[in-house]
Predict the structure of 2-octaprenyl-6-methoxyphenyl hydroxylase.
Amino acid sequence: MSRVQIAIVGGGLVGASLALALQQGALQRGWQIVLIEPFAPGSDYQPSYDARSSALSYGTRQIYERLGLWPLIAPRAEPIDSIHVSDRGHFAAARLCAADEGVPALGYVVENAWLGHCLWQALDKRVVQWRCPAQVESLQPLADGYALQLADGQRLECDLAILADGGRSNLREQLGIAVRATPYGQTALIANVSPAEPHANQAFERFTDAGPMALLPLSDNRCALVWTRPHDEALRLQQLDERAFLGELQEAFGYRLGALRQVGSRHLYPLTLIEAEEQVRSHLVLLGNAAHSLHPIAGQGYNLSLRDVLALADTLLAGDPQNLGTLPVLQAYVQAQRLDQDMTVGFSDRVTRLFSNAQPLLVSGRNLGLLGLDLLPPAKRWFARQAMGLGTRY
């Protein structure tokens, strides 16, 4: 048996970011952090046409700058200089521009493999240990922490356990933490696409009666596609040959980037808004998709999780290092993040539902809203700050 101060179950982007945010303060306090992850992180980054990616808001860039990681990420971070928002078949549209907001970019699109590579390289082995590949089979609460039973028979105790093991967390279920699950009745089709014309660092959010789509700029003049459709339709689109698929995508998206020439592997993800009814217990925190899983079209999920990471790290490092994980401290973290979480989840959910509805009154209303967004600077600025992950910050 061994004991550490902090055990992070899930060494993906959220778990590794928390370890990074804590490591300097942990080193000063004599804390040991362990990351427990089933899949070994890659030490060498290998570019791939089909690499999955994440949209990082400008606020997320600021967080990674504070943590010293942005210079490592930046070489393969494709800036989003503008966002074009439109409703298929209707005249109204809105455009958000980085120059209007006084920022170098509204956000960035980064391959997950590159982001993970940068995170893993930045972790200090003196304070952050890997248990990988390793699987936690169960968690048992103790008076002063948690006991983790690993699949290989080892047992580990910690003062604070962090669940960052995804939206389908078995450990969350074992602990009896209920979730509010609201299915969208949609499935996201994810793929990378190459257009004939340069994307010029534009992002496109296009809404249709059958569901929204986003096309985000990637390096090497690729675009990351997120196309949400009813499940049977998404499955049909996945199974089309490349030419037929590009034809249907072209019809739905239009010719703003010229002809669409290539599409890579297509992956399907059924979409449900998931919110854990408890984010903290004594000596336990849920982070990332284990705490809240959002619709991907607004690109807010990972960015909200990273703001949670920073708030949790700040709260822990400001507390008593000898009483790590006490309930009042963890409740203070949740309270500090409540407004941000409520605003971000609400913004993402309402935008998705509003622009996935064919009712004539809603269609007319949302088009007036898009027109007003483009004509009213205060409304546009509010919307832009939400998109940049700055909605609750001055």
